[in-house]
Amino acid sequence: MKKKEIQMSRMWKYFVDATAEIIEEEGIDKITIRKVADRAGYNSATIYNYFTELSHLIFFASMKFLKTYTDEVAVYMEKGKSPIDKYLLAWECFCKHSFKSPQIFHAIFIMDLGEHPEDLLTEYYKLYPNDLINIPEGLKPILFERNMNKRGLTLLQAAASEGNIKEENINAINELTILIWQGMLSNILNNRTHLDIEAAEKITMNYINEIVRNQHLFDFQKPFLG
User: Fold this and answer.
1) Which of 9, 6, 13 is nearest to 60 (CA)?
2) Which end is more exposed in the chain, N or C (fewer Cβ atoms within 10 Å of the end residue's Cβ)?
3) What are the CA-CA distances from residue 43 to residues 20, 49, 70 (Å)?
4) Number of structural domains, the chain?
5) How far is CA 83 from CA 1, 125, 135, in A?
6) pLDDT digits (tens, 9 = 90+) for 148-171
7) Residue 36 class from Cβ within 10 Å (0-12 exposed, 13-18 middle, 19+ buried)?
8) Cα dist. 58→22, 23, 52, 116 in Å?
9) pTM of the model
10) Distance from C-alpha of 130 to C-alpha of 17, rounded to nearest angstrom
11) Do 136 and 198 fall within a single domain?
């Protein structure tokens, strides 16, 4: 790595680490450019030499809290004997961690990050390679994918190739499971539910299981509206 790249990487980490400290102490909603700059020991203008917008800084800092999930999801999925089992176990782990830390998962998987958000995950793991330790090679392509619509497709396509689900139902199943999760996460974030975390996880997984296990009972090709 060239001297200039090393310097940029070091500065980049100063700001990310400062933002992560603020998240841990005050919460994501309390982050401002000025606070991050003060914490890192630089002026606000310097931050924009490394990050085009605040959402990117929040995204990278939030990623530092994701390792507990990425370590555990591999353990969860190892229990599955089939692609369908692994898909459901991955969702179970994802719900467990996202409902415990809704702001973190919203910042990583839902928040508007402008153009080319898919490049941000690659950039993060390039600078924090230790976060990939203990992650099986087969799981890395999924973890490098921020787009929720693409994360589950690999396992669903494998399930279809084994005849466990219909090929024509893949996109509908994928979209419905994501919408169910997003709805519950939104309720938790906005204090629109009285459910505790365990109950929210159980209800969400009940719906997801129902759609996946009983997909033959649904006519996904028939429009729901109109």
Assistant:
1) 13
2) C
3) 18, 11, 34
4) 2
5) 40, 26, 18
6) 888 889 899 999 999 999 999 999
7) buried
8) 10, 9, 12, 16
9) 0.89
10) 15
11) yes
